[in-house]
Amino acid sequence: MKNRVRELREERGWTQVDLGNRLNVSRQTIYAIESGLYDPSLPLALAIGKVFNRAVEEIFDSDSTDERTVHSAKIKGRR
Known about the structure:
The chain is mainly alpha-helical and about 80 residues long.
């Protein structure tokens, strides 16, 4: 899942430790989220949104929509 966590954190001049402290998670968790190695749980995603005063959808972008999904949706719409 693509996300803007690193960008938003750096805009505020926060380290990964700073953000982790605000969210009550480890620096390693922040690193994993920023690197796309870990997708946060819904409660954590909501907390991240609250910390940055943004909607979750503004921070996280599901990259699961690919050409096959779009094509499949178009075909189903024709029936």
